[in-house]
Design brief:
6 helices
Amino acid sequence: MEQKRIGLNIIGENLRRIRKSKKWTQTALIAHCQIMGWQLSRESLAKVETGLRRVNDAEVCLFAKVLRCPIDALMEGADEFLLAVARHGPDVV
């Protein structure tokens, strides 16, 4: 069985997938965030997408709003990792 590594959040991979499906660069997503008044840096976004940064509930909601997607889309496939992330464990089998 293949091991999967997650980081400090469970939305990173889905965030990247949804952003790319819109053909947005990280810079484009940041621009949309800034239009809403959210001053997120590209470096911070990169860390979210790679699981190197935690994401709070308000940020999840803002990402969903900016991307015009349901919050569930950002959480897709995360059920098996919820407890591990809540326990602050970055490695999951």
